Amino acid sequence: MQNFRLKDQIDYIRTTDPNNFLLQFLIIQKSAPTIIFNTCHELETDALNVLSSMFPSLHTLLHQVQVSGKISNICLEWLESKEPRSVIYVNFGSITVMSHEQLFEFAWGLANSNKNFLWIIKYLLLLSLYSQTL
C-alpha cells in the first residue's frame, strides 16, 4: 500500500510476537464465512483491495451484507430515512474494554440524548450484560 508505514499502525498491531491476540484473531478470521470491516470502500480502497485478496468474503459496513442467504439492509434503509448528519454512530470495536457499569451509563446517555443512534455492539457482550441483570 502506498505511503503506508508500520509505525502508522496502532501499538497493538505492531508486533513480532506470533502469539499476539490480534494476530491469532486474524488467522482465525480466514475461515469465517463473512468478515465485515467498519469502513467503506471509498475511504480505504488500497487497504481493502489488499485485504480482499486475503479474505474473499470481506464486506464493508456501508454496503449490503449477506446474512443467512438473504440480503440484510434494514440498517441502511433506516439510516436513509433519517436526515443527513442526524444519527449518532457508536462502535467501540471488539478490543475495547469497559465495565458493565460504564456500558450501562453510556447506554443510558444515548437513550436520554433523544437522538437517533446506531450502536454496533457484540452479541456476546449483550448476553453477558443481560445475564448480570437477572
From TrEMBL:
UniProt keyword list: Transferase
Superkingdom classification of source: Eukaryota
The protein's name: Putative 7-deoxyloganetin glucosyltransferase
Similarity field: Belongs to the UDP-glycosyltransferase family.
MF-aspect GO terms: quercetin 3-O-glucosyltransferase activity; quercetin 7-O-glucosyltransferase activity
Xref: PANTHER family: FAMILY PROTEIN, PUTATIVE-RELATED, GLUCOSYL/GLUCURONOSYL TRANSFERASES
Keyword field contains Transferase: yes
